[in-house]
Amino acid sequence: MTTITIDDEMINELVAVSHFKNAQEAVIKIIADYLQQYKKEPTLFDQLRLADDYADDEIASLFERDKDSGRSFEL
Questions:
Q1: Each residue of 20-61: pLDDT tens digit?
Q2: What's the DSSP call for residue 26?
Q3: Which residues of 4-13 are buried (b: 16+ CB within 10 A; e: fewer)?
Q4: For residue 23, which of 14, 34, 32, 31 has the smallest C-alpha distance?
Q5: Running DSSP on this structure, what letter comes out for residue 19?
Q6: How far is CA 35 from CA 2, 15, 17, 40, 49, in A?
Q7: The total number of structural domains that make up the chain
Q8: Contact residues for 6 (Cβ-Cβ < 8 A; gap 6+)
């Protein structure tokens, strides 16, 4: 766990140069922006990858054809 200490002088300067009405809003926005900037976005490969907790029969069912679908259509 990391502890960040921000003194009153820094908070007052932060509020003075920002458009926030109070120190709490300014600190929350800065932390949120920091997290967004350094948050690692999952790659396309990671997004398409199956989760590890699938059972073998669940994976097999993903590739089975539903026998009731796709057999009849109207013209």
A1: 888 888 888 888 888 888 888 888 888 887 777 777 777 777
A2: H
A3: eeeeeeeeee
A4: 14
A5: S
A6: 14, 20, 21, 9, 25
A7: 1
A8: 27
Token pair of 8 as six digits: 């009153």
In a domain, residue 43? The reply is yes
* Structural domain harbouring 36: 8-62
Output the pTM of the full model.
Answer: 0.43
Token pair of 18, please? 């920002």
- C-alpha torsion sign, points 16, 14, 9, 12: positive
In a domain, 2, yes or no: no
Helices (H), ranges, 6-62: 8-17, 23-38, 44-48, 56-62
Has residue 25 been placed in a domain? yes
How far, CA to CA in Å, does 2 sit from each of 5, 31, 49? 10, 13, 32
